[in-house]
Write a structure and sequence with these properties.
single chain; DNA polymerase, domain 1; alpha/beta; 309 residues; 13 helices; 8-stranded mixed sheet; Rossmann fold; globular
């Protein structure tokens, strides 16, 4: 298990926005190393409850040690896309007071070379948040077509040189398997003709492959849709994103719920007939200069909050 310190991003801002009822039932869909969960529990009464979810077995191990004696806390291992089922099993559908999602990769996952997330450290090319299931990045890079690799790098990594990098990867794997993060980083680095100032040339490629391997965007779309049925009226949805793809999904979802059902232009309807399901609360929140100064990874964080009507 990694001993890497993990600094929870937008800790107080997120929990302040989340908790309206100290006796309520809350869900932390991305436990990580428990920073947000600990703050939520500190704010809840003895009657409050918290369900945490995480794909990562190391996160589950941390939870079992850190909160073993707190009867208000429960940990579930798996994807947060199973939220609806987890809540229904507890008889709490439509009764969740708040859902918190802190997206992306935790610092221990990035800092532990064996996890294969980082282009700055050499390790096995894995990238799975749940190492007990699914295909590793090495396995995917070994079998994916050049076109599929290019698509993943472009769509999920927003990498404009995805085609060049995909060709370079296919050429390199024909000579020897690509099994290490350092190998992948060097190949895409060499295929990147326009390095961005202050950004490693392999950043976008690693992001794209990681998102694909972990099904991150599809899982996010699933849990956003499920939030409508699990949240109680007045329940809060709090989402912290770390790149534009995530934030775009969250922003569009909240906007759709605010506008209600799309209807033909010019159709006379009363406001209550629009079936609005959520309202946005305030503007998007970013980490303060002080927080960014102490934790550079918080600089790209953006938090959005909505309330179920």
């Amino acid at each position: 298990m990694s001993d890497s310190p993990h600094q929870t991003v937008l800790l107080h801002e997120a929990v302040d926005a989340l908790i309206q009822d100290v006796d309520g039932f809350y869900v932390d869909g991305t436990f990580g190393r428990g920073g947000h969960s600990a703050q939520v529990l500190a704010r809840l009464s003895e009657r409050g409850r918290l369900l945490a979810i995480d794909k990562d077995m190391e996160a589950v191990a941390v939870a079992s040690e850190r909160f073993a004696d707190d009867q208000r806390f429960e940990m579930a291992q798996g994807s947060f896309s199973a939220l609806q089922t987890l809540v229904a099993e507890r008889g709490l559908t439509g009764k969740v007071s708040g859902l918190l999602l802190d997206l992306g990769v935790s610092s221990p996952q990035l800092d532990e070379a064996e996890r294969g997330f980082s282009f700055l450290q050499d390790g096995p090319l894995d990238m799975r948040m749940d190492r007990t299931r699914g295909e590793s990045a090495a396995d995917w890079v070994a079998r994916a077509s050049e076109g599929e690799i290019a698509r993943v790098l472009k769509e999920y990594g927003e990498e404009r040189f995805g085609k060049r990098m995909a060709r370079a990867l296919v050429n390199a794997r024909s000579e020897k398997p690509i099994t290490r993060t350092s190998e992948l980083a060097e190949i895409v680095k060499a295929a990147n003709p326009a390095w961005e100032k202050g950004k490693h040339p392999a950043t976008r490629a690693f992001q794209g492959i990681r998102i694909h391997i972990n099904n991150e965007l599809a899982d996010l779309e699933a849990i956003l849709a499920q939030s409508l049925s699990v949240l109680a009226p007045g329940g809060r949805l709090v989402v912290i994103s770390f790149h534009s793809l995530e934030d775009r999904l969250v922003k569009r979802f909240i906007r759709r719920q605010e506008k209600g059902q799309p209807l033909p232009a010019g159709l006379p309807v009363r406001d209550e007939q629009l079936e609005r399901t959520m309202r946005s609360l305030g503007k998007a929140v970013r980490a303060s200069d002080v927080e960014v100064g102490g934790n550079v990874r918080s600089r790209s964080a953006i938090m959005r909050v909505a309330e179920k009507l």
